[in-house]
Amino acid sequence: MMSPSAIWVYLHANPLFGLTLTLVCYLVAWRFYEWGRYNPILNPVAWAIVIIIALLWALDMPYQDYFSGAQFIHFLLGPATVALAIPLYFQLRKLKTIWLPLTVALIIGISFSGVSAYFIAQWLGASEQTMLSMIPKSVTAPIAMGISEQIGGLPTLTAVFVVITGVLGAAIGTWLLRKFRIEDESVKGVAMGVTAHGLGTARAFQISPQMGAFAGLAMALSASISAFVLPLVLTLISA
Fold first, then answer.
1. How far apart are CA 123 and CA 134, in angstroms?
2. Rounded Cα distance, 117 and 111, in Å
């Protein structure tokens, strides 16, 4: 029989360790989320990230070793994003009636998000590169990192801002919508998708399929529009 230390050495060297660790940490965080009656502050994605970081630090495990196994979950982000089109199909009739205000709202929301992030960072004394890295913070990570590199920011720093934005949006977004007495599910979904991207969309699906469908649409469209709008916004505020 293998000793506990031998088992640990084997697991530590196995690429599947990263995948197993991710799933276990998420399940633990989800149990706390259920225990807390789905309080947004206990968002399972946020707390799973915290637990994983703590464990990697305690085990002195390089991130590259962890990601060699966890990258399968990263790969699934693509199919999961495409699958968001399925619930949206059932909202096609309503989408046809609101496509114009939706497009205008997305352009305004994306522009305001980028401008406000830039000037708040400037007010706090951030460096120019940090300010540029914050501009695409509300865009889904892969596209946000590409935009950041294009405008002179740091893609890795942008990825951190994207995660923080998503976690905060998922945690307080629905609360803010209630405070402003916004009742329309499509409007709430668009607001969550355009500000909190993937995590906001996941939170929206927990509330209603319609809200989740429009959050997914807003996330996808805002990512596409941002690639054109945000560089233009940067040109205007830098003039």
1. 13
2. 10
Task: Specify the pTM.
Answer: 0.77
**Full residue range of the structural domain in which residue 10 is found:** 4-77
Contact (Cβ atoms closer than 8 angstroms) between residue 178 and residue 21? no
Instruction: Select from 188, 148, 189, 197 the least CA-distant residue to 169.
Output: 197
* End-of-domain residue from the set 77, 93, 110: 77
Query: Is residue 70 domain-shared with residue 93, that is, in the same domain?
Result: no
57-65 long-range Cβ contacts below 8 angstroms, 24+ apart: 59/12, 61/12, 65/18
Residue 232 DSSP one-character state: H
CA distance 6 to 1: 10
Q: Say how far apart CA 130 and CA 161 lie, in whole Å.
A: 10
* Residues 6+ positions from 9 with CB-CB distance below 8 Å: none
**Residue corresponding to tokens 């096609």:** 92
Question: pLDDT by residue (tens digit) across 103-159?
Answer: 888 888 888 888 999 999 999 999 999 999 999 998 888 788 888 988 899 988 998
Q: Are residues 179 and 232 in the same domain?
A: yes
